[in-house]
Amino acid sequence: MAVRIRLQRHGKKGKPFYWIVAADSRSKRDGKYLEKIGTYDPNVNPPIVNLDIDATVKWIQFGAQPSDTARNIISREGALLKNHLLNGVKKGALTQEDADKKFDEWVKESEKRAESKLSKLEKDAADKRKKAIELEKEASEKRKLAAEQAALDAEAAAEEAPAAEAPAAEEAPAEEAPAEEAPAAEEAPAEEAPAEEAPAEDSKENEDDKKTE
Fold first, then answer.
1. CA–CA separation, 135 vs 166, rounded Å?
2. 3-class DSSP state for residue 23?
3. What's the pTM?
4. What's the per-residue H, E or C state across 72-138?
5. Quick one: what percent of the chain has pLDDT higher than 70?
């Protein structure tokens, strides 16, 4: 029976979570498996891996072949290195004590690299948050200045409005004045007309009186 170390998908849609399993190569991807040897969570940065290294090495020693993705994961966790050291012990190239010492040294170096990477990621995240705060502060200042400028413009417009209306109010009486004087000019001749006719009648009567005499 050919055994394959691969990932079996679990989790929710859009948020996958994987089991690392040793399964018959003929079984479906999410079907039955022989042993669950770890988990892989890619939803965080860096991804979280929990791997039973001894169980993984056991299956590799039995001839299990990891998939490409599973190989990358178990290699980062040191399973392939431990398998290589175990083969060296079997061949007599080194003792079990030397193999364990080399593996422990590798684990310590790996932890340092992981901590360094995590510190860098945390620093990058902090810098990103700081930059976002600065951008928000800058945008807030711009909005504040724009609001102040709008208020100043509104005050200036309010001050100009009465000044523009004042001339119109003063000119209104000047236009109505001629309309009030017009009737007075027309009535004057009507009142003087009888006064001019009166002397004409008196002179005619005097002339008639003289003829009669």
1. 48
2. strand
3. 0.54
4. HHHHHCCHHHHHHHHHHHHHCCCCHHHHHHHHHHHHHHHHHHHHHHHHHHHHHHHHHHHHHHHHHHH
5. 72
Contacts of 136 (CB under 8 A, 6+ apart): none
5 in helix, strand or coil? strand
What's 52's DSSP letter? -
pLDDT digits (tens, 9 = 90+) for 185-205: 444 444 444 444 444 445 455
Cβ atoms of 64 and 56 closer than 8 Å: no
CA distance 24 to 31: 10
**Distance separating alpha carbons of residues 72 and 205, to the nearest angstrom:** 148
Banded pLDDT at 166 (limits 50, 70, 90): low
Give the up-direction half-sphere exposure of residue 11: CA atoms within 13 A in the CB hemisphere. Answer: 15
The residue behind tokens 């040897």 is: 37
At the topology level of CATH, where does 1-83 sit?
S16 Ribosomal Protein; Chain: A; (3.30.1320)
Q: Does residue 80 contact residue 74 with C-beta atoms inside 8 Å?
A: yes
